[in-house]
Write a structure and sequence with these properties.
The chain is of the alpha+beta class. The protein has one domain (28-171): Immunoglobulin-like (Sandwich), CATH 2.60.40. It is built from two helices and twelve strands. It has helices spanning 3-21, 171-190; strands spanning 28-37, 48-57, 60-69, 76-82, 104-107, 110-117, 121-122, 126-130, 134-137, 139-144, 151-152, 160-163. Strands 1, 2, 3, 7 and 8 form a five-stranded antiparallel beta sheet that branches. The protein has a five-stranded antiparallel beta sheet with strand order 5-6-4-10-11, with no helix packed on it. β2 and β3 form a beta hairpin.
Length: 193
Amino acid sequence: MQSKPLVALTAGAVLFLGALCQSAEAQGILESNMAVLPAVNGVAADALDVSFIVSESGGVFTYTYDVINPSSDPAYVGSFEIGFNAGAPGAVTAGSLTGGSGRQNNGNTGITWFLSVAPGHDSGPLSFNSGDTWHISSANATGLPNPPAPWTTLPFPGGVAVPNPPVVPEPATTALLAFTVLGAAGRRIFGKA
């Protein structure tokens, strides 16, 4: 009689752990929005619009932007930059940058697409893949003439979605934390308080 509850309890625990360990791959759009990059001259009609989408499939995040130049003035957009640590491991998948009419540049300050967006036109999709989920950060654009260029989302709260690379503690901090934990464990094992 006692073995049935024990079997049921064990089977329930196995099923519960199996449900926890299953891998579920969420797919689809995680964030879709529009950011406004005000012009340096402060005229609202000279602001740029940037639509952005973050999607995820199988643990790979795709970041896509479209720079829209609604101006009727002869203001050309020559570059678009998003701010984050693009040099962090996994932040940008090698070879995944697309879009723009020129070269792309990525480093510790972010990614810059070099392009040419005439008034009343848009850049088309500018995208890349990352292993990191998103947060909101700054975006900037340059062009001619000045003003209305340049354009920026700073100061916050405006911005676009960018990867959020995890912060890895420096080795000295990790070693200090390890010695602290080992020291506390040693005191308990050897009975010294």
